[in-house]
Amino acid sequence: MNIPKNIPGITIIKGSKPGPKVGIIACTHGDEPTGLSILRKLKTLKPVRGQLILIHNNIKATRLKKRFCDLNMNRLPTNALTQKAPTHYEVKRLQQLHTIIKDLDFALDIHTTSAMPEPFVVILNKTIPSIAKKLGIPTIISNMAKIQKDQAFISFCGGSKSVRIGIECGLHGTKEAKQTALQATMNFLSEIEIIKKTAQAPWPRPTLFQLVGSIMAPERGYRLTRLLKPFEKLRKGEKILTKKGSTPVTIPLNCQVLLPPKTTTITYPNEELFFTIKQQ
User: Fold this and answer.
1) Residue of 147, 260, 137, 145 whose CA lies nearest to 207
2) Phi, psi of 272 (to 5 degrees)
3) What is the DSSP letter of 134?
4) Across-strand partners of 110?
5) Closest Cα partner for 232 from 215, 214, 254, 249?
6) DSSP helix/strand/coil, 218
7) What is the strand order of the sheet 51-56 is part of?
8) Rounded to two decimals, what is the model's pTM?
9) Burial level of 44, CB count in 10 A (0-12/13-18/19+)?
10) CA-to-CA distance for 230 and 10, rounded, in angstroms?
């Protein structure tokens, strides 16, 4: 893989034998630096095969300590790759990185959250790859691509046969999140034999959930009726968003909560306020 010299934030470590191209992605959101600490640790690895490609994604937002500059890099427009002379930084960055990420066979995108201490794995489709069950993270959420608004960065990585996994490792900046991120990443690399595979006890069966929907505010001015807890059960018909003089938003089906906000105020009105899931 020939990397243009003008693309910052990329480190490639070649293995001693041919093998898959594996991307480890950090800072898709600039206010989630845990992944960046993992990339620093991985720079000392010596892969036994393939290519290990370390990707510092949203460099500008990281420098500014912001979630994003112009667009959420996990809510990219479907035409992001075909835009000519884009004005949004995140679209420019995607186009810059695409010469690299389009050839990935495996991709792991490291995240943390502000509201959920419980780690979980995120899969774009309904089908869960076997490696997702061997990362040491006990909860797996599938079907993200169908439910999420616009496109996640990782959906641009590789092709239809590539394995693309996101991991939410816990709360921003915590020791526990760093430990989860590092262990899951090393398990990922071990399972695809980029690094030497060590003996491992049988993995416990993870709890599987599927995304079934999301809750968004119809317009500005809506508020949550109450604070929600991660994985809290909601009942069909419950009023969840209200605004004086407007029709309330209700829960469409019995479900559980994923990624609830920390306050009843809506910070990003053009994004999902939270997702709804059902256990499989």
Assistant:
1) 137
2) -60, 135
3) G
4) 167
5) 254
6) coil
7) 10-14, 51-56, 21-26, 106-113, 163-171, 120-123, 139-142, 207-215, 274-279, 255-258, 233-234
8) 0.94
9) exposed
10) 34
pLDDT tens across 161-199, in order? Answer: 999 999 999 999 999 999 999 999 999 999 999 998 776
Which residue is listed with tokens 């980029």?
A: 194
pLDDT of 201 reads: 66
Alpha carbon distance 209, 190 (integer Å): 25
For tokens 């309904």, what's the residue? 126
Please write the tens of the pLDDT for every residue from 257-279: 999 998 998 877 778 999 999 99
How far is the C-alpha of 148 from the C-alpha of 142, rounded, in Å? Answer: 11
Nearest Cα to 242, choosing from 208, 262, 265?
Answer: 265
Report pLDDT digits (tens) over 5-46: 678 999 999 999 999 999 999 999 999 999 999 999 999 999
Instruction: Kindly state the helix (H) or strand (E) to which residue 18 belongs, with its residue range.
Output: none
275: helix, strand or coil? strand
